[in-house]
Amino acid sequence: MSDKITHLVFDCESIADGDLISAVRYPGESLNAAEAVERHQAELLEEKGVTFIPATFQIPIAVVIAKVTADYRLADIVSLDEPKFRSHVITTHFWKGWDLYHRPQWVTFNGRSFDLPLMELAAFRYGIPIPAWFKNDGYRSPRNRFSIDSHLDLQELLTNHSAVRFNGGLNLASKMLGKPGKMSITGDQVQQQWNDGDLIGISDYCRCDVLDTYFVFLRSMVVTGKLSLEDELAITEETRQWIEARAEQCQAYRTYLDHWKGWTDPWESESVESESEPNQSEPNQSEPNQSEPNQGEPNQGEPNQGEPSQSE
User: Fold this and answer.
1) Is pTM beyond 0.90 here?
2) Left, alpha or beta for 78 (phi > 0: left; psi -120 to 50: alpha)?
3) Domain boundaries, the chain
4) Considering the domain 5-265, what is its CATH architecture?
5) Which range is least confidently modeled, 29-43, 129-143, 187-201?
6) Residue 225: helix, strand or coil by DSSP?
7) Which phi-psi region, left, alpha or beta, contains residue 81 (left: φ > 0; alpha: ψ -120 to 50)?
8) Residues in contact with 258: Cβ distance below 8 Å, sequence separation at least 6, in sequence order
């Protein structure tokens, strides 16, 4: 068992920067932050049928990270700068933590398209240097889409780098494995939660997404041959117990366990079914054994003494 942290599984929640939207999209109209966000969302809904504001206009307000060891076991889960959730502090801890743990592999679901660009832009906004992340090392450059040493996007893995569309997203992948997936909250509700002051609720939602991502990561390691199915199932059970041990202090963990269904092993199910059915290769004890001659009838394997043998 290794204690070295080699993977950081993470997820971000963000809100729109209303002041930036006002300045960029509605200059000279004197809209306050809330008015700018509301107007932009209304325009997006009319144009595209969604209210999701692009990442370039957003800032991170919750980042949860699962620290995972080289043998794929969960070491810890942290919510950065909880309970204050200051965006600039979250961003600083995010990038400095990556350096502190000797630059382990980031693991995300669709992080190449949202989470990591969001955190890069936050570093730009707050003036945080991350030279190791922007290092130009050819194919092995951390930001190279096809190099997974620094970042493994599970959606990219499962779609062969977007060769197909992964309809259903993390929610679908999680539910395939009997994990909760999306529950009562979805990403498009985070802005309203922030407006309502429910910061812990946002962090809890993010924490559940990280657990889902971690379990999808484990199964992905089975598919790629890095982990056996038996080891994955054992680690999953260890993690369930880890969550259970902390559930009393964390609402997110209680909610997660309440919605946990578990994965059904088809091979194990077939084995149980076969054991519950009579073995067709064995004789029914309530009937004469057809493999032995009835004492009142001639043995079919020997000629009847009153009839000629077929070989004669």
Assistant:
1) no
2) beta
3) 5-265
4) 2-Layer Sandwich (3.30)
5) 187-201
6) coil
7) left
8) none
